[in-house]
């Protein structure tokens, strides 16, 4: 079991909460589609043939793809992949921008409140995703377990040294070239 720092655990919980809240927003959009349609669709002017935009399928597909991607990246972030941490930060930043943009469209009060809450939770999530504890966690997870600080050497193997990472003893060639030989072979004089 991997011991994760509190910042990583809290970031993951906030990310899961954002995914769940996104599902709630999708349900809310489906329920209030008529009220949102009057705000988000272009106004009919005269005898225009412009059809109102059907935004519900777009929002549902966008949520589905983003949720699956975020859940996959959360698992990778918990395993110590730094690129997953940065990808999650980009998704959360996108949620923040969309939430602020939604507030500017004067949606119904309930959607407005949820967008403001999403913006606040996204900002807090970014703090924990980019927290120094999170950075240290992914940096340490990128190092093999036997080379981590405080790791005990594996039984039967010599401890690794800085100049010979695999623990092998090297010797410099006698001809002065600086080439190292590993093992019982000696440099040839020919």
Write up this protein.
This protein is mainly alpha-helical. The chain has a domain at 6-39 and 74-141. 58% of the residues lie in helices and 3% in strands. The protein has six helices and two strands, in the order H-H-H-H-H-H-E-E. It has helices at 6-31, 33-40, 56-78, 82-103, 109-129, 132-141; strands spanning 170-172, 180-182. It has a two-stranded antiparallel sheet with strand order 1-2. A hairpin with a 7-residue loop joins strand 1 (170-172) and strand 2. Helix 1 (6-31) runs antiparallel to helix 3, helix 3 (56-78) runs antiparallel to helix 4 and helix 4 (82-103) packs antiparallel against helix 5 (109-129). The chain is elongated, with a radius of gyration of 28 Å. The model is unreliable at 167-173 (pLDDT under 50).
Strands of the widest sheet, in order across it, are: 1-2
Shape designation? elongated
**Poorly predicted ranges:** 167-173
Strand content: under 5%
Q: What is the mean pLDDT?
A: 81
Helix fraction by DSSP (H/I, runs of at least 4): 55-70%
Number of strands: 2
Brief synopsis:
The protein is mainly α and about 190 residues long.
Sequence-ordered SSE layout with sheet pairings:
Elements: H1 6-31, H2 33-40, H3 56-78, H4 82-103, H5 109-129, H6 132-141, E1 170-172, E2 180-182
Antiparallel strand pairs: 1-2
Descriptive terms for the model:
190 residues, mainly alpha, elongated
């Amino acid at each position: 079991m991997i011991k994760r720092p509190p910042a990583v655990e809290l970031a993951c919980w906030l990310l899961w909460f954002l995914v769940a809240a996104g599902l709630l927003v999708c349900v809310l959009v489906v329920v209030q589609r008529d009220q949102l349609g009057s705000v988000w669709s272009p106004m009919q002017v005269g005898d225009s043939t412009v059809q109102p935009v059907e935004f519900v399928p777009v929002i549902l597909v966008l949520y589905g793809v983003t949720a699956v991607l975020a859940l996959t990246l959360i698992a990778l972030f918990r395993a110590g992949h730094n690129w997953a941490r940065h990808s999650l930060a980009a998704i959360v930043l996108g949620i923040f921008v969309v939430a602020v943009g939604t507030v500017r469209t004067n949606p119904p009060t309930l959607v407005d409140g949820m967008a403001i809450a999403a913006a606040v939770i996204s900002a807090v999530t970014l703090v924990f995703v980019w927290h120094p504890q999170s950075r240290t966690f992914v940096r340490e997870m990128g190092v093999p377990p036997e080379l981590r600080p405080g790791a005990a050497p594996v039984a039967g193997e010599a401890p690794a040294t800085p100049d010979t990472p695999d623990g092998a003893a090297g010797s410099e060639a006698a001809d002065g070239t600086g080439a190292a030989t590993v093992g019982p072979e000696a440099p040839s004089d020919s």
